[in-house]
Amino acid sequence: MTSLNRPTLPDAVRTNGATPNPWWSNAVVYQIYPRSFQDSNGDGFGDLKGITSRLDYLADLGVDVLWLSPVYKSPQDDNGYDISDYQDIDPLFGTLEDMDELLAEAHKRGLKIVMDLVVNHTSDEHAWFEASKDKTDPHADWYWWRPAKPGHEPGTPGAEPNQWGSYFGGSAWEYCPERGEYFLHQYSKKQPDLNWENPAVRRAVYDMMNWWMDRGIDGFRMDVITQISKTIDANGKLPGEEGSLIEDNPVGEEGYSSPFPFCSDGPRVDEFLAEMRREVFEKREGYMNVGEAPGVTPSRNEHITDPANKELDMLFLFDHVGVDQKPGGSKWDVVPFEVKNLRERLADQQSAVKKAGWASLFFCNHDQPRVVSRWGDDSTEEARVRSAKALGLLLHMHRGTPYVYQGEELGMTSAHFTSLDQYRDLESINGFRQRVEEAKVQGAESMMASLALISRDNARTPMQWDGSKYAGFTAPDAATEPWISVNPNHAAINAAAEFDDPDSVYGFYKQLIALRHDNPVVSAGDWNLVDASDEHVYAFVRELDGRRLLVMVNLSGRPVDLPAESAALLASGIDESQVVIATRGASHAVVSIANNELAGWEGVVVAL
Fold first, then answer.
1. Is the pLDDT of residue 32 over 90?
2. Residues with active-site annotation
3. TM segments (predicted)?
């Protein structure tokens, strides 16, 4: 583990309720999607040596923690989120020695490394699953095995144990002829769910986590960790199973019911997370653990991240990234973005951790499209830069720990693919097949529009380092093309073009990151919403020990009037010395405020 190259917050400042303050309370995390970050050997896939070669870039940006999406051994059915060996590196990414080198070089630069960990499920090629196919093996109860529905021939339609559907399309049950039973998979059929009810499963997971921590990593980001506890009845049966005391929900338009209400934030989540804390983290220092939290509400986030409860440091909540999806509908039923919906969701998250606990701040990651294309405006270069800065300012001025997804600091856009064969994402391809070709609940043109807006592949195109043929991700004369197409706009949008330009999106992100390190009001001040009903401006006040910052961001492309509460706070006018940071510069901000307006995509932070 390593120490950061900057001061931590003084104990007199309260962050998550712990004493002393945790080191990550004024940190910024940078997520790396390894297969798309930097290819060092010309095979078309990013790798660990490629990440090591770019550490100076990340140190210059000023981030503190690097979160790596999975690099473990895997068949790559879901791009590494299907792990077949937790204690080895997939040859696609390199070797354990490459991982050790990355750790050592990152630590030299004061950068911490957090690994992505997937323990809700494994690959069906994991040795545990292979062993569990034998009902007499000690691993027989390590997964959710169930017999066919009584009166049905195993392996035939309708014989599944209940009517649950997979989030990736089709049934959530797969028949295994070797065992003569079905196994549960909430995701791909190559991702069987582990049975966390079995203490032996938990022991094996904790032992593996300790092995990595002892090797020198600085913590884990845990994939869908709040789905490890399933709702079962007094007899151990899942909802909807034959004889279960718990009724399943009705089937939806695609012909299946959803396991989500019964597999997310289940009855033993707190117990399991507290046990993990004791067994892996309790006697260690300098680590960070964050969990991806499907189904967790802001109030539950407060409980799980309250240090008094000794579970997790942070959670990723998802209510705010669903504001452009139809409530109660499929992920692919999209609706127009409205500022009020985003503000309401984030306000709920911020308010829930006023007294204890902590928030994770993100708009982008490997599962979300590029925010500048989703909620900003990438139709012109000017609009792209301005909206990327505005959305970055908005996110980073909230209270919590910000996460920057690779390329977000450049204002990278979504892929803008136009045909299904350009996609590589299992969820997107299966979603099209399920909704358009099988269930016929959505037309092809509509589904392609949905994919263009929110497919996960939008965030997975190669990192844009320069304007060369493959964007510097791999050599321009490489024999193998990148695993997924490079965005054609890389000639204009790339790190080389932005690195030395203080007016670039990259230059602005450096300012945002430095501000969190240096200004305790930003990292730890109270958060209070103002102008809660404005249609275009998202505004709030941060306050600490009598120091107040007013944050105002116009999330539209046209000039708008200052909302009433913000205008009242600025009634006496401001000068440039009061502008802490602004997307269009301090002088522009002063003129805008004097005119009682904000320009299109203008964001301003003012010291009151």
1. yes
2. 223, 292
3. none
